[in-house]
Amino acid sequence: MKDSITDVPGIRVGHAQNDETGRGVTVVLCENAKTAGVDVRGGSPGTRETDLLNPVNMVQAPHAIYLSGGSAFGLAGAEGVMRYLVEHNIGFNAWNITVPIVSGAVIFDLTLGDPLAYPDARMGYAACANAGMDVPMGNAGAGLGALIGWAGDLPERMKGGLGTASAVSGNLIVGALVVVNCWGNVRDPTTGELLGGTLDATGTRIIDSYEALKKRQASISTAQQAKGITTHTTIGVVATNAILSKPMATRMAMMAHDGYARAIVPSHTAGEGDTVFALATGEVESDINIVGSMAADAMARAIAKAIKHASSAYGYKAYVDIAGRR
Predict the structure, then answer these.
(1) Total structural domains within the chain
(2) 125 within 8 A of 83, measured Cβ to Cβ
(3) Is there a contact between 276 and 237 (Cβ–Cβ < 8 Å)?
(4) Model pLDDT for residues 238-279, shown as the tens digit of each residue
(5) d(Cα 11, Cα 8) in Å, to the nearest integer?
(6) How many CA atoms lie within 13 A of 131 on its CB side?
């Protein structure tokens, strides 16, 4: 086991990125998924093909999940994922025409790198071509431009990133992959260690973002409060080899959001597009309560791993820089 979402048989992950511009994408290939779901908890999502994952709709599962930087512009990269899938004859057969289904979500990372550089179809295609079992973490793929600690001004933020983890019980496997670009502080759910968030003016100490949020209540107007919490998102995928109906796959996505809340404080604010996709390959009998709890565990640890594996870049400090000073 790799402690990765690719521990789930049939799941592969690929990254593509441009280090100069600070943009990247990540693709989870899941052509063997039997059912899928999605749950959006943030108030400012940027998503693609999420309505079809509603349990009342016909499509049971997508063929790929696309995660990207570039804000709404980054959704264009999913075109390259579709082209790759068509070339490999992966998709629904509609009157002898292959139609892949690609669901996805984006983060806002335009304050870093080149604000006019967006992931495109070539990058989406390249991520598919790079897909495999090994998943680089930290400043990789869609996590390349991720930042955390949006409670402060730009210089007070820290480097976010991409992480993955898995939970195993007998022959049941649940994996998670996440891009952490959050407003709040991040803690290790196992040890309680504060891993990252908003830095103080000296750039050496992480402030309490929740306390900073409460202080804003007493000092500025309601309109300013609403304006101050914007443009940040954590997006992720959980996958399992469990046999789940489409409604239960949606329940797994909902329970996986508990992992966000365990590792990120605060979570799911109005300016965030926090989204979790869920995939089930339908091989192992299990109870949704067990699957969902394992999904939350894997997600929380994946968030911590994203920050621990991130490295300083584009003028932003990472966990390793701050931890070394303690």
Answers:
(1) 1
(2) yes
(3) yes
(4) 999 999 999 999 999 999 999 999 999 988 888 788 999 999
(5) 6
(6) 25
pTM here?
A: 0.94
Each residue's pLDDT tens digit, 185-224 = 999 999 999 999 999 888 888 888 887 777 776 666 555 5
Model confidence pLDDT, tens digit, residues 123-164: 999 999 999 999 999 999 999 999 999 877 788 899 999 999
At residue 325 the predicted structure's pLDDT band, cuts being 50, 70 and 90, is low
Three-class SS state of 169: strand
Q: Sign (positive/negative) of CA torsion 233, 71, 61, 137?
A: negative
Q: Which domain holds residue 268?
A: 5-323
Contact between residue 116 and residue 61 where contact means Cβ atoms under 8 Å apart:
no
Nearest to 187 by CA among 318, 321, 307: 307
In the structure encoding, which two tokens stand for residue 268, read together? 């799911």
Give Cα separations from 3 to 137, 225, 247, 298 (angstroms). Answer: 12, 39, 26, 9
Residues in the chain: 326
172 - beta bridge partners? 169
Torsion 93-94-95-96 (CA) sign: negative
Cα separation, 180 vs 35, whole angstroms? 25
Report the C-alpha gap between 114 and 95 in whole angstroms: 42
Q: Distance between CA atoms of 15 and 257, rounded to whole angstroms? A: 23
Please compute Rg for the chain using Cα positions: 19
| Site of tokens 């998943």 | 135
Q: Which segments within 158-306 are labelled E, that is strand?
A: 158-159, 161-169, 172-181, 185-187, 194-196, 233-242, 264-265, 275-284
Region of 96 on the Ramachandran plot (φ > 0 left; ψ -120 to 50 alpha; else beta):
left
Q: Give strand pairing partners of 264.
A: 186
Domain with residue 55: its CATH number is 3.60.70.12
Which residues on adjacent β-strands are paired with residue 97?
94
Lowest mean pLDDT among 17-26, 170-179, 268-277: 268-277
